[in-house]
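Batch job 17 of 40 flagged for manual review because the log was empty.
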Amino acid sequence: MVSLPRVVITGVGLTSPLGDDLASLRGALLAGRSGVERYEIRHVGQTLAGVCRFDGLKYQKKKEARRGTRAGAIAIWCANEALRDAGIDLAARARERVGVYIGTTEHGNVETENQIHEVAQFGFDLSFWSHHHNPRTVANNPAGEVTLNLCITGPAYCLGGACAAGNLGLIHGMQMLQLGLVDVALGGGVSESIHTFGIFASFKAQGALAQHADPTKASRPFDKDRNGIVVSEGGCLYTLERLSDAQARGARILAEIEGYHVNSDAADFVLPQVAGQEACIRGALAHACLSAEEIHLVSTHATSTPQGDEIECEAVRRVFGNSAGTFVNNTKSFIGHAMGAAGAIELAGNLPSFSDGLVHPTINVEHLDPACEVRNLTLNEPTRPARLDRVLNMSFGMLGINSAVVVRRPTH
């Protein structure tokens, strides 16, 4: 069997409803502070959302921001922050050896909806339609905007993986490094979701949009009274390198990616399947050559929908039910569902566990649903396990896509 290069995370760039850097995100997760707030959007009206407030002009000029997309702006922020966090100066790098792999659910929808609204004011006279529409809506937009911003000439594109996309960006970056096609990879996911009324309207029509008098309690996975998804925006990109390269430049290593798996349910447009999720988890363990007992933290995808949470908990029980040292948590209870960015942000929030030894809790579980009971589910307060060396990050999406990534505490 061919031994592939080991791949590590050396930088994190993110924006989330709980802050625009890893320290802010982690601090809020340990403090039990929600990032969900009241939000109003055209045609839908008052709703709830997770809102990001990064400085969009830190790395872009106003003209560039107007021409691009919200998803592109998020990606540019995250990419610049990830490289800065990793201590990488692109001026000293061969830029054709840098790759950009961004998972996303949607992009360009925001600008398209705005354009339709604008031309509607002029009797749908399309002479008012922007010539920027096409580059905003092509599938590679967020990754392409990053390359334009950073003058990266290596391979760059987006991966459409619904709400599993954040994991896919990370996985693909790892693969390209192992193939020797790039020397630095920026991988992860971005989402502009809250700026398009269509997503809110669709979830509302499906009966899957969360409601609660207190916005901070609206996202409540595993709770008996959960009633749907809180839509969130955000992004997280990782600087990935081969372990040997990171060590050669004396880089700080945050974690090593040990394994992953992606599969499909092939069963339903929106309803997940226990068998598919279980197979995905077991596939990631097999790829990493690990047993269930060697995973110390499972980061769940659970979105706060009645059926979805039950199905995922059953998959977790089937794999980890006998593992006394495996703890389970959820990040969407804090920030809502960041769609294509969800898996990447959620993994980031758990990476500091390797240094502080804590499992951040799942909040807003006042009455645990018996169907969602799993061993060592961390609720409302942080937990300190006896050992915390590995995290399994799960992300699932519509049309039956499942993904799981295993990362471990950095070792030499």
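Reviewer: the log was empty due to a logging misconfiguration, but the result itself is present. The mean pLDDT is 96. Unflagging and moving on to job 18.
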